[in-house]
Amino acid sequence: MKKMKLKVAKMGLIFSVLAASLAVVPAGYETVSAAAAGKSMAAVFAQVQAERAAQVVALVNKERAAAGLEPLIVHTNLTKMAKDKAVDMYRNHYFEHTSPTYGSPFDMMDAYNITYLYAGENIAKGQRSAEEAVEDWMDSPGHRANILNPKYKLIGVGYYNGYWVQEFIGK
């Protein structure tokens, strides 16, 4: 019962903060439509997701530099795929490399017209920051091997509601 009350209290606080942030209207604007407010919140969430993905790329490249490797270059279509995989895991309530929607990461790459000679995927769930996600990957031998694989030259990172996805390819 206490957990339920606490959860409701937290949700009420979050709603209050969101409502308060939406109530702030720049000078010169009388009203903000619900659709505009929704778009604003969607834009904020999209920005947060993009920032977290960019932080992962920066941290991965820092690890690669420390290992004497060249940085990975962000690949636009691989990034879209990684984001779609994160969304898919969240919406379909699973956490594994094989998607019920897309199949294996390699099937998904094929579906997104991504060509490669070498490819890999890292996934994570529940980490609260990019730093925490990369640290957990670096503490895992298999994930670390992907991050430090000299054959990989391109990366795509997706983040969505606590799900983290890294896609790697080499051509």
TrEMBL record:
Secretion signal, residue range per the UniProt entry: 1-19
Species: Paenibacillus aceti
* CDD domains xref list: CAP_bacterial
Record keywords, A-Z:
Signal
Q: Where is the SCP domain?
A: 58-167
Q: Which PANTHER family match?
A: SCP DOMAIN-CONTAINING PROTEIN (PTHR31157)
InterPro entries reported in the protein's UniProt record: CAP_dom (IPR014044), CAP_sf (IPR035940)
The superkingdom listed in its UniProt entry is: Bacteria
The protein's name in its UniProt record = SCP domain-containing protein
